[in-house]
Amino acid sequence: MPRTTVPLTLDRLEALDGLGVPCRTCLFWELDPVRRERLGDAEAREVKESWVSEVLRDWGSCGRVALVDGEPVGYLTYAPPAYVPGAAAFPTAPPSPDAVLLTTAYVVPDQAGGGIGRLLVQGMARDLVHRDGVRAVEAFAHRGRAAPGCLLPAEFLARVGFKTHRPHLRTPRMRMELRSLVTWKDEVEAALERLIGAVNPRSRPTPAHRDLN
Q1: Residue 93, exposed/middle/buried by CB under 10 A (0-12, 13-18, 19+)?
Q2: Domain count, the chain
Q3: CATH code of the domain containing 75
């Protein structure tokens, strides 16, 4: 059962309609409370599409869609804080200036607990790790059963690599350093090179002369 993630586009956003995704018309992050309360579902859908289009045009990829056997089973979105006015409502705001905000994440119920959430976070990290000026991903989390707004559980974020950056009893702000992912990737690649060299030492190239000038 092949599983992967692909960038969020307008076409893939529309494909999520068939999943009954509750976040599809939710503008909790994209608008301030006064503006979003004035909109019906049809208008909210259009605003959501406009938001994705604007962020894609001005900043770049702002989400990942998880596919299992080619079919979408979940997605997440992220963006610089300037595109996320809803974040100002939290006592642990504002987010750090060197961080991108992870806002929404959703996995269809029949895939829950199967690692799709982790897969999405890993896809996001691979997308962001080489972006200029982005050192980390932050998220406003919730503790307890009742989630105020569209917040991700702190327990889930901790499992996929986030740590508490600004504590709060109910809505801590959590952070995942992208630098640690780069270090981990380099260490894995170096270990693989050592393993290949140990298994097949004849394949090692002759050291080249270095130009020290």
Answers
A1: middle
A2: 1
A3: 3.40.630.30
Query: Within the chain, what is the greatest distance between any pair of CA atoms?
Result: 70
C-alpha 15/C-alpha 31 separation (Å) is 23
- Please give the residue range of the domain that contains residue 69: 3-197
Spell out the per-residue pLDDT of the chain, length 213, in tens: 689 999 999 998 888 877 777 777 889 999 988 888 888 888 988 999 999 999 999 999 999 999 999 999 999 999 999 999 999 999 999 999 999 999 999 998 888 889 999 999 999 999 999 898 999 999 999 998 766 567 899 999 999 999 999 999 999 999 999 986 654 444 444 554 555 555 554 544 333 333 333
Is the four-CA dihedral 126, 129, 132, 136 of positive or negative sign? positive
Q: Is residue 28 part of a domain?
A: yes
Quote the tokens at residue 118: 């982790």
